[in-house]
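[Automated response] Your request has been received and processed.

Submitted sequence:
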Amino acid sequence: MKFNEKTRIGILYQNEPSRAVIVRRVPALQGAAPEIASIIKSFTIEQYFQMAKDQVTPGWLSETLAELADVPYVAEPEEPEKLPSFDYADGTPYIPVGTTCYA
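Generated structure:
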């Protein structure tokens, strides 16, 4: 969780592919940062999906919330592409014919 003591805002979870952003509103939020509270309250799920479709850059809502909460935005790392495994069922590695192996 990213949390800012000054604004008392915590961004608990951000998942752009599923379009889910969960922001924890601390009780002192209304007094410390009413503009963020109004932004959070003004979004419905339908509005969020429509705005997410209309936006050009991924992560726009998270960047906005992070900026308003004065917390640096850190994009989630992309998972590396998994290569298919050609090993045998018992775990023995498959080595193509003609391959020279050095031990």
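Summary generated for your ticket: Helices lie at 29-32, 34-42, 45-54, 60-68. Residues 2-68 form one domain.
If you did not submit this request, please reply to this message.
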